[in-house]
Structures are given as structure tokens and as C-alpha cells.
């Protein structure tokens, strides 16, 4: 597609390096342009996020995630990402440029593909996807539009914009992500994705390649989503009778409604697809049909050997028609026996040549240099043991080795191979060993008090994998900000602590303070707490309070030690009301006796008298009044001072 000449990006130099040449495609999140990397003098594809999304942190994070996810993969069936950055208002990423078409374009032009073509494309897709799953990445948006078919024959997966690290369950967020026609039942029903969700999408693509149609259709997206959630994908042969039963089984296995009934990951499905391909090839050979090559030269009617390149015709996945099938039977020779001894010998020689050639082709593709092997896993083995395994498969192991950090394999052992294990390669292909350097060290970033989204980005930059957040009530940290960071054992991780790349950590995020229920009735307090996910239980000993009426709630206390989290129960402490005491009646007593009596009751005494100290113990100058008056009830704590009045 050619972009309009009014596109302001055409001809622009991005980040001082990438000269935009033309428009390639436009999606919901970004536009892709063909550009020239003027530093390395090569063509690249530059994906630029739409300007109106620049202020949307969620889209920007997803855009950056695409670069990070793809950059972690180095596989022949995954589109390479070279660079990522920010130019003026928009984020961009630079990818490998692959001139060609997408699988969607191919399906639109040809409709259903042959099982052999489906096999080639499926093996390539699963090879790249297996590398992603091994790296802990779930693609989450597999569809024909994201499968690229290059002009030179390469097949690659692209667009990791929705990719996420694969935990036990990877949540999609606030809404369903991905194209509805390829969403697994668990994504539709629960918004949860893992490696088996990618397998479901591959199964739908296999169905579409074999039949030229998607299994579920509807006028509205929700109609299609409902079918994914409630109906089983039919066998492809119900729409295309030419589909072998083995392909029906593969599609039904990959698209099982229950994730537990599907292959665990792309590697498991790839191994079965490869094995099915071998079985079908063997079955065709046993019945005399040739899977990949057809010798179409008829037996000559003149005494001359066939010459030129017209003696062979390549047919992928086909069976020769009667008009082109080689004449190899004894009856065919007998029909020509009457034409002379010389012609008979020539015919016999031709038949022998054809038989020898067929046998040679069989050896070439079965056990010779033209055969293929699936690279076995040597992960965790020593270098010498790994070399023995691979050479035993007929592969050539490079003398030099690569090194890479690995979160699971001990340093010095084999972490993997290049190409990756499970890849289907030619016999005698060169394979390099990747030796583990152990876990890559990193340090815990200081993220306490930061908003959750910013904290996750900081953790990703430091090489950590962050799981689902744990919510906690905290009156000192703003709602939505990080309270603590926990390791896999639930212990707190301090900023600057030593750790390793790939470590899974858990964010503890504040949901604000526990609701203030002081002075509320028990019912009102329980309702307020329930609205925030807490259960209020009356308990503990009631306490006096001069401000809260008897029977109302004084405060909330945690049950046991540790923080309070949504779903917890808390204790409601109830008020006994004000704690009152009665002022003693000391009117008529001597000043000293009155003061002693009041002080015994815990009151502070102020004297209002003109009686000399020497006469204050005499009944001649008795107490005339007190303030507050005797018999008055006052707070026990704090008790008010009592003013004693005695005048001549």
C-alpha cells in the first residue's frame, strides 16, 4: 500500500537515524512504515505509536512491552526487533523488514490450503511460538494477520504487543485483548491466558488453513465469543472431506475447550505435528504415492533415454494423476515386447533408472542429507554429554559455544541450543550449544510509595518478573501505590538488595486506610467495612469513652499480627459510654477535712477562702459550698478540679 503524499512522516528522519520512505500498514495502536537505517544502510520496518495514544500510559506500556518481549527471543521464526525509542511525542520500535504477505493475504487469495502447506506453515509458527513459551512469554494475539510469509520463503511470527510473562494464570486486565475469532474459552470467560491459550489460537488457524473458513461466525463479536465459550470446534473434515483424520485429531486436540485437555505448550504440539507429518508421508509411500516428488516422464516409444530437466516435476502434497503416473509395471513392458528386443532392453533400463532414482529420493529424504531431524533437548546436561546427544541425531555441533544467563540452569551446564530445541532442521545442520552463566545478577529498585504501573516498569527494567499484586490497607501510603515488595517466600525485599534477573516478585499495593467507624452503630460500622471488603466482628472488652455513646463503635483492631487485607475480618471495640464519678458532699465540714475527703476521691482541690491556715481545721469556719456541687456526676478521667468555698 502506498501512503498519501500528505503523510507528514514520509521523508522524515526519526531520531536522527531512520529515514521514513513509505507507508506499509496501519493498526489500532500504531502505523508501520518502511524506512532506511542510515547508520547501517539497511531497510527496516518502523512501527510508530499513534499520536493520540501518547498520553495513555497503558498503551505506551503495551507498546514498550512488545519491544521487550520480541527482543528476548532470537529465533528464525520470530520477527527481530532491533531498536526502541521515543521521538517527539510518539514511541517507536524498529523491526526486521520482511517483504512479502501475511497468512491472511494467502487465505484470502487461495481459500483452503493443502495439508502439506498447512504443515509447513504450522511447523514454522510453532517453532517460533515454542521459543516464546520457553522464554516465559505468552503471545496472546496469534492470528493470520500476525504470521508473515516473506518472499524468500521465511515464515515468522510478529506483533508481540499483547505479550505477557507467563505465570500460572496471566490476567488480561480490564477487557478482553486479542482478536475475538481466535480467543480461547478461558480468555472469554475469565480473562486468563497462558501458553495453552496460544495453542488454541494455533488450532483455530489450522482449522482455517484446512477449510478456508473460521469455525465460528456471527454478526456481532459477542456472538462469536459465546460460541468459543460454549461450543466445541468441529473437525475440519466436516467442511473439507479431503482433510486426513490425523489433521482432525490435531485440530481437536489444540482447540479443546478445557485447557487441561490441550498440549501444554507449543513444543508439545510441534512434536506431534512433526510426528503426524512423518506418519502421513509413510502412509503415502506404502500405497505407492509419492509425497513430495513425482516422476512424470512416460516410457519412451523410441530407443532414446530421457534428457533435459523435464524428466522431473515437483508436486507438494499431491498424488499423480493417471496421465502422469510412471509406467513401472511388468504389463507395461509386455505391451511393448512385440516392438523388438532393443526397445525392450531400453525400456527395462529406463524402469531400472526410475526405480533407482525413486529409491535414491527415498534415501535422500529419509536417512540421507535431505532428511530432517527435530533437535532434542539437552538443557541441563554437561557440554560433552550434550554433544553426544546431538551428534547422535546426525547434527554437527559447532566447536565454539555461546554463553547466556539462565534463571534455572546451573552455570557451566547447557542452557539450550541455537537453533532452539524442538526446531526441525536438516540432517548435518550446524547447531551451537548455549552454556549457562547462571542467574544474571540484579538489584531491587526503590519502588516504595510509587504508583503500581510505574513500579512494574521499574521492576521490568531491572529484570524482575512481577506477579499479581497483593492488596493491603495502609493509612500512610496513597491508594494504588506500593507498600512493600515480597519474594517468592513472602519475605520483604528492601531497595538495593541483591537478586537475580527472572526472579518473580509480588507487589503489595495500598488500598488506602481502613474506614473510620468511630461513633457509628455496630450495623453502620459493619456496612462501611463490608463496602471495603472487610468483615467486622464485635469482640474484645468494651471500654469507657467520654465522647462515644454506650453501644456504639470505638475503633477497629486487627485480628492477630500482620497487615489487614481485603477479605480479612477485624474486631469492633464497643464503647461503654462516659466513665462518671460522683462529687462527695463536703459542705459543713472543716476546710481541712473537706480537702482530705476530696483528694481521697482523686479530685484536685482549689480553695476559695479567707480563713487563716491555723483555723482551717476548726469547725468554726466550715465549708459553705463546692463547684461542682456535691452529688454532681463528672468524668472520672480527666476529673475536673473542685473549688471549695469557705468565708468568714
Distance between the termini: 114 Å
Tertiary shape: elongated
Number of helices: 14
Query: What structural category arises from helix and sheet content?
Result: alpha+beta
| Major sheet characteristics | 6 strands, antiparallel
Quaternary structure annotation: single chain
Mean pLDDT: 81
Q: Provide the gyration radius in Å.
A: 41 Å
CATH level-3 fold name of the largest domain:
Transferase(Phosphotransferase), domain 1
CATH architecture of the largest domain: Orthogonal Bundle
In the sheet with the most strands, the strands line up as 1-2-3-4-6-5
Region (Disordered): 623-648
InterPro entries: Kinase-like_dom_sf, PASTA_dom, Prot_kinase_dom, Ser/Thr_kinase_AS
Protein name: non-specific serine/threonine protein kinase
Domain Protein kinase: 18-274
Can you give a write-up of this model?
- The protein folds into seven domains: 1-97, Phosphorylase Kinase, domain 1 (2-Layer Sandwich); 104-156 and 180-287, Transferase(Phosphotransferase) domain 1 (Transferase(Phosphotransferase), domain 1); 288-366, no CATH class; 372-436, Trypsin Inhibitor V, Chain A; 441-510, Trypsin Inhibitor V, Chain A, CATH 3.30.10; 522-578, 2-Layer Sandwich (Trypsin Inhibitor V, Chain A), CATH 3.30.10; 581-646, 2-Layer Sandwich (Trypsin Inhibitor V, Chain A), CATH 3.30.10.20.
- 27% of the residues lie in helices and 23% in strands.
- A six-stranded antiparallel sheet has the order 1-2-3-4-6-5, with helices on one face. Strands 17, 18, 19 and 21 form a four-stranded mixed sheet that branches.
- β9 (147-150) and β10 (155-157) form a beta hairpin.
- α5 runs antiparallel to α7.
- The longest helix has 26 residues, at 341-366.
- The protein is elongated, with a radius of gyration of 41 Å.
- The chain starts with 12 loop residues before the first strand and ends with a strand.
- The model is unreliable at 1-5, 164-178, 286-345, 347-351 and 360-365 (pLDDT under 50).
- It holds the Pfam family PASTA.
- Residues 623-648 are annotated as: Disordered.
